[in-house]
Amino acid sequence: MNWESNVRKVVPYVPGEQPSGKVIKLNTNENPYPPAPGVEALLKNYDVSVLRKYPQPDCRTLVEALAAKYNVKPSQVFVGVGSDDVLAMAFLTFFNSDKSILFPDITYSFYDVWASLFKIPYKQIPLDDDFKIVTSDYKAENGGVVIANPNAPTGVFMGLDGIREILDANRDVVCIVDEAYVDFGAESALSLLPEYDNLLVIQTFSKSRSMAGLRIGYAIGSETMIKYLNDVKYSFNSYTMTALTLELGAEAVRDDEYFKATCEKIIKTRENLKVQLRELGFDFQDSKTNFIFAKHKSVSAEYIFTELKKRNIYVRYWNKPRISEYLRITVGTDEECDTLVVNLKEIIAQGEK
Ligand SMILES: *Cc1c(COP(=O)(O)O)cnc(C)c1O
Fold it and tell me: How far apart are CA 353 and CA 340, in angstroms?
């Protein structure tokens, strides 16, 4: 089969399981609460004749809502099919150098997949033993920098002084800050945009806005950067967002009150869960996200993961260097977390025998 030698072969990203049936699903950092109420109302009254036409190629309904919310110009906003799509477009657009792009060794495991797919050379820089980013490691010559902040799956947040240090050392390359979890108590680098034309901030509706199923992500940066991103997008697929998605997304952005209330609820549940996990003998770095990346002092992560699954409780586990003793546990509702804790208690008692 000669054609196979011409195939662009990739080792794909492996998403978390989406089991059907009734389970407690704490494995993909989804939001346990529904989207803003206005989203449901809009959906119920949706005029389907709209779907006859192509959607807005410039996605202005959603772009304008985001620009108003974040107090930037619409020409500074790019939207895509989840932040995965936005990140992929950003890699394709901005990382076109022979020099390696840099990102941590423990981070969102899609970054190395995109780099491989687009043939971008990359270097994975080790986090320190506390899973912190060592900013001085990002001062070597490079083709770009990608930082998830707070980081995933560690949950660790680096203050803006650290981000600033990396931006200062890399004025000649694009630095992407992936803020998928920023709304759960961290601080956004958006405030640095007026000072840094090498900064691109990427966020998503999948976690804090309870809309993982609708697929919306966005980037905010300088007008020049967004123009370059759009040039690549229009060279690939002009109609990335459905007409329905644009309407529902804009509606969700407009309801800031609901957004803040659900984020607060999750933060409160997370802080309670931290206390309970520590009592059970788990250790973890402080999390500013909607998950906790925890290691048990005596029982193996793989054992706990498997036993939880038998009880229809799904968390995330990676059998990978440095993190094979950790579980990433999404913060669900208070009830879900209570059930988790009850089951963990039993499993740990079994495991310690
Ligand atoms: C969840 C996540 C994303 C992607 O989310 P989308 O659903 O594609 O918007 C991107 N980066 C990180 C670090 C994530 O955890």
Answer: 20
- Global pTM? 0.97
Cβ-based neighbours of 224, under 8 Å, separated by 6 or more? 197
Ligand 1 midpoint to CA 279 (Å): 30
Residue ranges in the chain whose pLDDT is less than 50: none
What confidence tens digit (pLDDT) does each residue in 75-125 have?
Answer: 999 999 999 999 999 999 999 999 999 999 999 999 999 999 999 999 999
- Residues 22 and 98: their CA atoms lie apart, in Å, by 49
Domains for the chain: give ranges and CATH numbers. Answer: 10-33+257-351 (3.90.1150.10), 53-254 (3.40.640.10)
Our mutation pick for probing the ligand 1 site, out of 27, 84, 182, 203, counting the most ligand atoms within 8 A of Cβ, is: 84
